[in-house]
Amino acid sequence: MKNSSKKITWRQIPQARLAVWALIAGEFAIFGGLIVLYILNRLKYESWGEMAQHTNVIAGTINTFVLLTSSFFVVKAHEAAVHKDKQKIKLWIWLTIACAFMFLGIKTYEYTHEIMHGFTLPGNALLAEGKTVEVMYWSFYYTMTGLHGLHVIAGALALFFVMRKVTKTEENYHHIEAAGLYWHMVDIVWIFLFPLIYLIH
Amino acid sequence: MSAQHTPPPGLEHEVLVPQDPDYHGHPNYLKIYISLLILFAITVFASLIHSPLLVFIVVFVISIVKASMVLLYFMHLKWEPKLIWLLLGLALMTLLFLIIGLYPDVVPITRYLIPKP
Q1: Cα(B10)–Cα(A196) distance, rounded to whole angstroms?
Q2: Could you say which architecture CATH assigns to the domain A14-199?
Q3: Long-range contacts for A192-196 (Cβ within 8 Å, ≥24 apart)?
Q4: Percent helix, strand and coil across chain B, each rounded to 5?
Q5: A190 CA to chain B: closest CA distance, Å?
Q6: Cβ–Cβ gap A49/B36 under 8 Å
Q7: What would the pLDDT profile of A21-65 be if each residue is shown by its tens digit?
């Protein structure tokens, strides 16, 4: 590890980074609440385990790899921003955006597959069989993964616009880090969603 | 911080927006990424264990380790001032209150409190 670090005080935090950290704190409370409720219900209802078996583990595994890799790309973009290397910033951010597209593409494939098998958000097919608890599983599934998907879109857009502005104006390079922080938050949420939704049957 | 952003004498403490983002060291990101991938592989293989409770404990602990690594090194939380830690701590406190508040609704604890006739 290169030891070029120097402690900063709270007065020295760039406003953009502080704002993103505040946003992240709020997001953790939102997703944390959903995850905790999912766990409590999962422990309560055994049939949720059966429902979890209908998720596509391979797709979830590939998506986890994609998001972890994108986190690495973002942090490399931040490293390039420190050196004010515009070409490398563009390269790493575009790779991250490509990962976002890949993630969303795989998720769309999963949703299509699940909806075609009757596992929808209103859960009409399951309701017809009187499976109300199972419908609740899919409500949680679509809410958590859907909300996460929206954050992936927001993160990719933020990275794109920040990259465009920074490379054009050649100032405020630290905005790359602020947008990157948001992207890492998206990755952290998925780190918890993946095992809970796909792996624990 | 570069020379052009050096504050005038006596106003050093008023500087709120440093333009130099290199306030922290740069850990070996590749090493951390590989560690995350190894933990990810362990998570996937751990799911093959036949005890759901054990799987839950193992994968959840690994998830916490992975999230901490991303927070500390990729997000540089390790080098952030206490204010940021406080912000995240407040979020976790909110979450804790939420759990305490919602737990009785999801898992009815009254069945343990009210004696069976």
Answers
A1: 54
A2: Up-down Bundle (1.20)
A3: A192/A31, A192/A35, A192/B63, A192/B67, A193/A35, A193/A144, A193/A145, A193/A148, A194/A60, A194/A61, A194/A63, A194/A64, A194/B43, A195/B43, A195/B47, A195/B59, A195/B60, A195/B62, A195/B63, A196/A35, A196/A38, A196/A39, A196/A42
A4: 70, 0, 30
A5: 10
A6: no
A7: 999 999 998 999 899 888 888 888 888 888 888 899 999 999 999
And the tokens for B105?
A: 């609704």
C-alpha dihedral (A67, A93, A25, A107), degrees to nearest 10:
-30
Report CB contact under 8 Å: B106, A44.
yes
A88 within 8 A of A77, measured Cβ to Cβ: yes
Contacts of A21 (CB under 8 A, 6+ apart): A181, B80, B84, B87, B88
pLDDT in tens, A149-187: 999 999 999 999 999 999 998 888 889 999 999 999 999
* ipTM for the whole complex: 0.88
Task: Kindly report the nearest CA distance between residue A6 and chain B, in angstroms.
Answer: 6
Whole-number Å distance between alpha carbons of A6 and A12: 12
On whether the CB atoms of residues B66 and A191 are closer than 8 A, the answer is: yes
**Exposed, middle or buried by CB within 10 Å (0-12, 13-18, 19+), for A123?**
buried
CA A118 to mean position of chain CA atoms: 26
